[in-house]
Design a protein that fits this description.
mainly alpha, 172 residues, 0% strand, 9 helices
Amino acid sequence: MKPEKLSDIKKELTGRTVQELTELCLRIAKYKKENKELLNYLLFDSEDPLSFAEKVKILLNEDFRTLQKNYYYSTKSLRKILRLMNRYVKYTANKQVEIEMSLWFCNNFLIYADLGTSHKPLQGLLIRQLEKISKILPKLHEDLQFDYQAEFEALLHKAENQARWVGKSIYL
């Protein structure tokens, strides 16, 4: 069975009553946790995406605190944190929230992760986030760009001092 195009679905939805649309939304929310979370965000948190980001930080901060020292398990936990963070960022569809959350992740990575390890997958998590931040920065408004650029440079300086495998010059 092939699903219809999005434009066809949109046309069909415009012909439905409010009651039918409500029932459809609730039915969609029943079947998948992500749909329910997205609907929750759109209904209750979409007015202020930055406060939503703060709620997500509080939620994920506990996972950082319980991060294990073993590099294998810490990599696994960090991937889980990153997966959840990216899911919540996707709901907002806001570059400012994305960069805010990525900077927060990198700062917590530097605090809680074992930076002395030579485990490439663990190193790759931080490096990919730094690359992601450097790609998002030019897409922001100039004022925000200036603020986040300063924060990003401070993060790079901190990372370079704490982890010998991070090269600051690559990202600037």
